[in-house]
Amino acid sequence: MIKEKANDFVSIKTKIILIIGALVTLLLVTISLSVLYQWRGLIIEKLEQRAYSVTLAFSVSVIDVLIYEDNNAFSADDFLENYIIDFIQKDPSIEFITIYDNKNRIVSHSNPDLFSEELSNDYKLKLEQVDSFTPKIYESDDYGWVLESFLPLKIGGKRWGVLRIGFDADGTREEIRSLFIMLLTITVIGNIIILMVLYILTNQLTSSLRKLVMAMDTVDLESKPHMPLSSSNDEIGYLIYHFDEMQKRLTRSQKKLINVQSQVHQAEKLASIGRLVSGIAHEINNPLNGIKSCIYTIKKEPDNHDQLQNYLDLITEGLNHIEMIVQKLLGFARQPSRTNNKDNMIPVNVNESIQKTLALLAYKLDKNQIEQSLHLDDTIPPIKIDQNLLQEILMNLIINSFDALNDGGILTITTSLITENEIKILIKDNGPGIEPENLKLIFEPFFKTKDVGEGTGLGLSVSKGIVEAHGGTLKVSSVLGKETVFSVCLPVE
Amino acid sequence: MSFIFKKFKRKYFLIRNDMRKIIWVSSFLILLFLIGSTYLFYRAALDISIDREIPSNNYNSEVKKDVIYFGVVSRYAPNLIYKGYQPIMDYLSEVTPYKFELKLSSSYKETIQQLSNNQVTAAFLGTFIYLDAHEKYGITCIARPLNKNLEPFFHSVLISRSDSPIQKVKDLYNSRLALPSAYSFSGNWLLKSEFKKSGMKQSDLDSIYHFNYHHTVVYQVLKENFHAGVVKDRVAAEFLDHGLRIIKKSDPIPASPIVVSMDANPEVVNAIRMALLGIDVNNPEHAKMIGTWDKEFAFGFQEANNSDYDSLRQSIKSWNKM
After folding, report:
1. In whole angstroms, what is the distance from residue B245 CA to residue B264 CA?
2. Angle at B310 between CA B305 and CA B313, to 5 degrees
3. Burial class (CB in 10 A: 0-12, 13-18, 19+), A272
4. Closest among A490, A486, A491 to A427, alpha carbons compared
5. Nearest to A291 by CA among A310, A316, A324, A326
6. How far apart are CA B229 and CA B211, in angstroms?
7. How far is A108 from chain B (nearest CA, A)?
8. Which of the residues A60, A66, A71, A184 would you substitute to probe the B interface, choosing the one with the greatest number of B C-beta atoms within 10 Å?
């Protein structure tokens, strides 16, 4: 599995499902609510329309009866009660019918118990104000939800009273409830289906992406070619195809790079051998010339014992110099193996080693008026190293600084503890500094800026080899005309 | 307290650092919100209560006026009569210092009775019955309605179905005839005038029946319960596009008058006359108003005098001589 980059990792799948899911939910809810309130309005309107039609139709008969009564044709009482009873029997949705006269008295009521019902002043006022069909829907203690329709019994300016009919509205609420449940069900099921489809699609999408990422994660250009990913005929397919192509290009580039690196390495090696040979040739050539000259002189006067002895000493000195060069060269060649000698690895006090090395060089330093500035940290622990090798490193670096301070100057040595397991030694001189182009070559064997015959060019190279063999680092920094600093970091263990 | 706060703070930061937890918590909160919203919408949807404001209109606070009763024969169902005639009462109540109310009667005879008993001050009367009422009870005409040509006349017409074989009066042999009131001109014209002109007798018919309303006559003919009938031209015109045909048309007859009783208060009579004659059909407001009145009065009124009906009297006399 791909390891998520951070705690706040949110997959594309989650994002798509959350965002599109939220939008789809919002859309479905909006549509459902619109439909609900549209249909709800229509259902209520249908109830009102029905109430209006029924009330209007019934009012015609009532008005006829009241007109006949006005004209003394007959008494309304004879007819209205029968009309009301008959009407209610025909339409079970009618809860009650009441007829009021212009003085708000009940002329007739479907419930005889309410003939003498006393109306409140507000209600009377409302009855007087009814000028057209006026519905009112409310929840009644007696009838449950009821639509009460008021219709003035009037034609033109002639008004006989008000007709009030109560219709059952529970059925309407039941219709709305059914509609609500239906729309809710559709919304929820629709939402679930859409989210499931979305989940499946995004899963397919992200699984392809995950496979691709896993393939990218395991890419190793140096190993054998990867197995091609299964492709699809969409954007992911294109991505996989282009990833494969890119990997092929990278593999080709890698091969080219290795070839070039090999060539460069070979060239550097040849250059290094060239410098080595050149250095050896210079170093050996001088004593050889001296030896050759001595032998020539001895051959000329073989019986001159004083001269012979003198020249033999010179030959011996020359051969010793050549031997020293050869030994240093051998030391350079053998330096990694030196560290394998575990017996020599003992805890060494770095500060003491520095003091000893300076003591060995005290005469030279004083002679050249080089001031020493020591900042040795007493708290640094002893480090495990071959003491002789450490002194060789210190000697090489101090001599390098000494050479730089030919006309006097300040040699500053600082020790410090970097971490619990690492110490640092800084050897700084305020000499002329090193040219930037020489800084890159300073640790190369036989690279030197001194005159031929002075030094071997192997000191810094050997020192770097020893430090690195002990798991440390040797670095140099220099500011031209100001200072040069060698920094040695060594592990405690 | 501090411990609880630290615990909460630690938990809060743990949650904040974990997006997945945030998503789950958010999803749960959204779900709770949706459930809560659904419940609220459910409650709101089921609350169907309505209580609309009723505009203030107090009928019991109207100014009290003397009530003048206006008689009208209930030629249609009472509420239809009121629809056609109550607006006239409303208009008269509005433009005169009196409140006018309709008094229905079942027949012309009853209306005349009401006029003579002063139960009603004025009445809408048929032309034919007016002649008799004037003679017997001194009832006077004050105005008469105009037809669509703005003439104070109407015609009685003999009608049949469009597909009926009856083309002329003589084709009525052995047919069933529907007529309006026997006290109306239309109820007498065919039998007393046209039959005699055509040499026919009442007995040549299969049957005759008088209905209270002109519209009833039309419906009976269209339903083929009767072969032919006689109605006012205005009523017949309403059904010409519905399978009715006019076979014969009478001479112009003076329109049915608005009459007052002999003892009517002259001020009231004058108020009624002035109000009716003041209607101008060219005035859009008046035209709109009389558009809601009975179609008989859709074109306004003209002043009526008893002498305007002399021609009809002559015609009736001539029928008797035939």
Report:
1. 43
2. 130
3. middle
4. A486
5. A316
6. 10
7. 20
8. A71
Are A150 and A164 contacting, i.e. CB atoms less than 8 angstroms apart?
Answer: yes
Of the candidates A10, A14, A176, the beta carbon closest to that of B45 is on A176
**Which pairs with CB-CB distance under 8 Å and at least 24 residues apart come from A38-42?**
A39/A176, A39/A179, A40/A176, A40/A179, A40/B45, A40/B48
β-pairing verdict for A483-491 and A422-429: antiparallel
Number of Cβ pairs closer than 8 Å across A and B?
113
Do B137 and B113 touch, CB atoms closer than 8 A? no
pLDDT in tens, A220-257: 766 655 556 666 777 777 888 888 888 888 888 888 88
**SS3 label, residue A321:** helix
* pLDDT, tens digit, 9 for 90 and up, residues B233-265: 989 999 999 999 999 999 999 999 999 999 899
Q: Residue B32 is encoded by which pair of tokens?
A: 């709770």
Residue A493's SS3 state is coil
**CA-closest candidate to residue B315, choices B174, B178, B185:** B185
Residues 267 through 306 of chain B touching chain A, CB cutoff 8 Å: 292
What are A450's two structure tokens? 């001194």
**Coil, helix or strand at residue A141:** coil
| Residue in B22, B27, B54 to test binding to A, most A beta-carbons within 10 Å | B54
Q: Which residues of A touch B50 (CB under 8 A)?
A: 44, 135-137, 147
User: Measured between CB atoms, which of B18, B48, B82 is closest to A176?
Assistant: B48
- For the whole prediction, is pTM greater than 0.80? no
In three-state form (DSSP H/G/I as H, E/B as E, the rest C), the secondary structure along A337-350 is HHCCCHHHEEEECH
